[in-house]
Amino acid sequence: MVKKLAVLSIALVLLHGLAACKKDLPKPQSNIPVSTPPAAHAHTNRLAREKSPYLLQHQYNPVDWYAWGEEAFAKARKENKPIFLSIGYSTCHWCHVMERESFENEEVARYANEHFVCIKVDREERPDVDKIYMTFVQSTSGQGGWPLNCFLTPELKPFFGGTYFPPESKYGRPSFLELLKHIQQLWETRHGDVADSAKKLHEQLEQMTAKEATNGLAMTKAVLTNAASQLKEMYDPRNGGFGDAPKFPQPSQPAFLLRYGMQFDDQDAVQMVLNTCDKMAAGGIHDQIGGGFARYSVDAHWLVPHFEKMLYDNAQLVNLYLDAYLASGEKRYADTARDIISYVLRDMTHPEGGFYSAEDADSEGKEGKFYCWTRTELSKLLTPEEFNVAAKYFGITEQGNFVDHSDPAPLPNQNVLSVVDPNVPKADETLLKSAEEKMFATRSKRVRPHLDDKVLASWNGLMLSAIARAYAILGDESYRAAAEKNLAFIQSKLWDAKTKTLYHRWRDGERDTVQLHETYAFLLAGVIDLYEATLEPKHLEFAIALADSMIAKFYDKEEGGFWQSAGSPDLILRVKEDYDGAEPSGNSVATLALLKLGAITDKAEYKKSAEGTIRLFGERLQRIPQAVPYMLLAFDFSLEEPKRVVIVGDAAKPESRGLLRAAQSVYQPSKVVLGNVGPVEEFAKTLPAKDGATVYLCTGNACLPPTKDAGKVKEMLTADGRK
Asked: What is the pTM of this model?
């Protein structure tokens, strides 16, 4: 999906043999506890002043790290040194490995400090920086991943990059120290060639990332059919999911296919999604004891995860399982959504309501140690009766199913829990529940993985959306309370009401100054979902403020689409994010959110901005739709006038809440739900109450006969559920 940049110079040719950088490598035989400072803090670098958990993990490295900023850039310019840029995040296993092997190595540090200006970046705090240099590395090497290690000129232009480099020459690549020495030699002896390559590569990057609206393409429902066909070809009929190992949930792909299947009565597509949900929920990627999902599985059948848990994955999976529940009526999907929310509210929530970012894969220096079990351990913990039921249900074996590669003393016979035999006799259900409770209590006493406790407004927006929808669909009042508390936290810590500015990160009492489009887009989508779940006018007012500010700061009025950042001298490119991967892109989320907000408020600017973004992505939607499944959701929403469910009456009263719950209990994604007070569209304000709460189902200025009956509301939406 990423175009290949040409190798332009002798310098790049000489480095070509060093450029094989893969995401998934044989695991190095090293697993010392993460970020253990040397005795008496022999080294403390500038990162000690930062708030990012990832940067703080490197504060005791002998490498003289700088944070991304003018202090480092000025030093590189003044001393004419190349910049070594290393990007990662705090729960990244391979980032930990390279830190232990290279960045804590005194010899490597001395050489790096003498010849380079070394900069650390948290990709979760600065996705705009990461996007530029990841695009470069993917385009020159064909691979990407983290840690992302890139060499730049003092003008911040990249000339070589890769991912993980080992401490000794192996895996067909040089040691990291050898790489540093080679780069330094080229910088000294062929500086002109390197500078020329960097300049030309930057020009190619500019051309590659530039986008123009494709107004000439015919955008019809055939785009949806083509996209569904391609996704169905990627489907794994044995294991569920799309593609092979390593397998990521990428929830926007099944979310689109489910919507397509329900809309066009394609039961094969629907079953592909439901089977995928079942396989994931039964797999080791799903924490069977504590809830929530890991980031991905290293195999094709969802068994052995890469154990880190990310807020953005779990938020999107809540929405996917809620959709599966609405589409199928099967309670198990609602239970999985509840399970994820329970995990987030228990383990990933600040006391004041913000949601934390992630939990690590490692604990005590070993990946997965917190989550895995041996047969012997369980046999001692449980009664014989509990053990027999649990061992059969979870497939516990003597040899285990997970190989620990840590050194020294790898842990033997580890079992990742997955549902191997779900057919538990009714008489044994109590035994299984008792076993699970004991396992959870015992596991809770283990050393937990590192918690990345920064609060990102963008990812909080995704989880806000999930919990708001869960409240609307499942009716659990605790979900509404959590959603309201979360939004109050974000508004208090990260929103400046006077300037209508939303900041990206809050941690330890301090917010950053970064302006990112996805921050506004993701939170906007979450606030709209909270409004539709509650009909509170103040939430709609806030959504309007967010949308107006987002358009003013990031929208490209000439070509359409949203810039990833507001523009900054520390960025060599302005980029429009165009990939719905593990996270959906800001452009995709903004487009759907603006279409919905436009339908609720009848503000033409919102629809205009959304349609301009769809035109910008027209060619991508038609040629590689699997790369933009969330944008496909927005495109589908744009094809017809959405249905408006207008609930007239006091939203706080039980009768109104019952009607609101009914409106949200049907799988009908081409709708919006609104009240008739506050800044809603004018037609809704003219609809009269009929002796209490009343529902109108409208399109344009035409409505079906009003009703007070929740069952009738469901009938009206179900009858109109397919186009």
From this structure: 0.93
Residue identified by tokens 């900041």 is 503
CATH code for 640-723? 3.40.30.10
- What is the reported pLDDT for 720? 55
- Residue type at 152? L
Between CA 392 and CA 502 the distance in angstroms is 50
Decide: helix, strand or coil at residue 681.
Answer: coil
> Alpha helix (H) ranges present in 142-190?
176-189
Predicted local distance difference test score (pLDDT) of residue 405: 78
User: What residue has token string 């958990």?
Assistant: 53
Quote the radius of gyration of the chain (alpha carbons, Å).
26
Give the tokens for residue 337: 């959504």
pLDDT (mean) for 704-708? 94
> Which region among 164-168, 381-385, 397-401, 694-698 has the lowest average model confidence (pLDDT)?
164-168
Please report the DSSP string for 277-325 in residue order: HHHHHHSTTB-TTT--B-SEESSTTS-SEE--EEHHHHHHHHHHHHHHH
Q: What is the mean pLDDT of residues 518-531?
A: 98
Per-residue pLDDT at 234 exceeds 50: yes
* Topology alike, domains 10-209 and 640-723: yes
Sign of CA dihedral 36, 39, 42, 44: positive
CA distance 252 to 243: 14
Two tokens at 637? 């929403």
Eight-class DSSP state of 99: I
- Residue 410, classed as helix, strand or coil, is coil
Say whether pLDDT at 4 is over 70.
no
**Residue 638 CB contacts under 8 Å (≥ 6 apart), including other chains:** 591, 595, 610, 611, 614
In the predicted structure, residue 47 carries a pLDDT above the cut 80: yes
* Topology of domain 10-209, CATH: Glutaredoxin (3.40.30)
For the cut 50, the answer to whether the pLDDT of residue 710 exceeds it is yes
The helix (run of H) or strand (run of E) holding residue 152 is strand 148-152
Q: Where are the domains of the chain?
A: 10-209, 222-340+359-452, 640-723
pLDDT, mean of residues 11-26: 38
Q: What 3 state SS string does 356-403 have? A: CCEECCEECCEECCCCCECHHHHHHHCCHHHHHHHHHHHCCCCCCCEC
